[in-house]
Task: structure prediction
Amino acid sequence: MSASAPWTVASVRAALESKKISARELAAEYYARIERRNPELNAYLTLSPERAHAQADRIDAMIGRGETLPALAGVPVAIKDVISTRGIRTTCASKILENYVPPYDATAVERLDAAGALFLGKTNCDEFAMGGSNENSAYGPVHNPVAPDRVPGGSSGGSAAVVAADLALASLGTDTGGSIRQPGSFCGVPGMMPTYGRVSRYGLVAFASSLDKIGPFAKNIADAAAILSVIAGHDALDSTSASLPVPNYAAEIEQPVSGLRIGVPEDYFGAGIDPEVKANVESAIGQLEKLGCRRVPLKMPHTDYAIATYYIIATAEASSNLARYDGVRYGLRVPGATLTEMYRQTRDRGFGPEVKRRIMLGTYALSAGYYDAYYLRAQKVRTLIARDFFDAFQKVDAIVTPTAPTPAFRLGEKTADPLQMYLADIYTVTGSLAGVPGISVPCGSSKAGLPIGMQIFGPHFGESRVLQIARAFEKERGAAN
Amino acid sequence: MKITREDVLRVAELAHLGLSADEVETYQKQLDAILSYADKLNELDVSDIEPMAQVLYAAESASSPAAAEKDSHPELREDVLRPCEVSDAVLTQAAESATPFFRVPKVIDR
Result:
């Protein structure tokens, strides 16, 4: 098999079973590409060949013995560096965890391991997943593989970039306000945010606990579905993981979409949208109609309040979650004469500017005298935003929108004004607040060749529906190209 | 300005962040801009709205009204003791430790 052929979960399995390639050789093929391309992209922070080779040897031994292979046997994956990996450095792209080596695997990671995946390494991201451009990494930004002078999106920029550049077959990212979907859109790969509670967060380093989700990036919808099937499901170690049964997503995605009602909220196509994004998403909706979907105009009246709501809630939760970085139990310690001095100097030196900004904002929003005005009010508006979704899903089967208002912007273009950067999250934070599943699928390119993504939201635990529409669109688009 | 220099210093103290003079000035401006934008939320009447405090239960009841009616939460495990012998592994990540403790600078002076 030539090194240029993009592998899929199914083609890896077939090649391993027919002994055209070994798992070891497959890992070597990916590491060779990583060696060539990663210096330019800065998408991996840490490579883990020891673990990948041990995993590959286990699969090769199973093949040698003629055993049935597990679901993701030999599939080379990358893992965002905010997800704990036993024995592999996990920095959260922060100086404060520069040398942190977790003693355990996150549940999602453990499940990938049990399913036979190979862990190539850990991917770069915005520090503690806070950002939309990957420029907040303490280890330098990731470059977009499609246009290296552009951002890959964020915060899971590395996880999107490695899949787009074939430096991993698939990857895990995390999504708090759009951190899987927006980089998926910017890099031109599918990226899926599951329903809140669908995938265990045990071992995910917490940013905003009422919003954080783990989900996959892949080259195609079938692979995303295969990975989601493995990582989803209840976990006794995460009391916020749902106990609902997990469907076999891969089996459900080929269902026809004819007759499905697709809600198109006019609030997502207003001021601030790039005309090329609008045109491409409109044309994609036209393709869904061609497949028999019925377009239903929607109003989601609280959309305009989502950014303010999100940035109050997410920063409040972050200020609380990040209190644990104090130099005592793990990570950086900068000595001080007193305990308080040690805390202060450790946090001062260890956190980057965006993380400090969010801790400050969240601490303010939770502080005496301001809690009711900011945090409590935001939690109430969150109820209204969630109701927009509940109401919409009484009338439609899925909601289709652009993923981001623009294609990938230039490195450095938005770093001077944090509020402008936050406003670019407008189409993704709504679903994050409601807790519904959403996917970004590539739906076209700008004239400059930059990828554009379409976002598909489904009702709570409606991952099958979201993936089914994404798959039908992918097939239609593939046929059209 | 909505946010004063004193607000920034107060919040930095609460958050255990010792900011430089430049950072104090920058964050004052930026927090002011962001919180002024957040005032948008005051346009809405939320007096009769419940805050969304638990996302999972909201999600479960939206997808299965029966689950909401039962008000059962099978995701919660039994509260029983289980062996958890990880202290050695955990302490290897500490800057300073003396098994089985983390070490910190003296907290009480006398």
Observations:
- The helical segments of chain B are 5-14, 21-38, 55-63, 65-70, 87-91.
- The beta strands of chain B are 97-98, 101-102.
- Chain B touches chain A through 57 residues (CB under 8 Å).
- The longest strand of chain B covers residues 97-98.
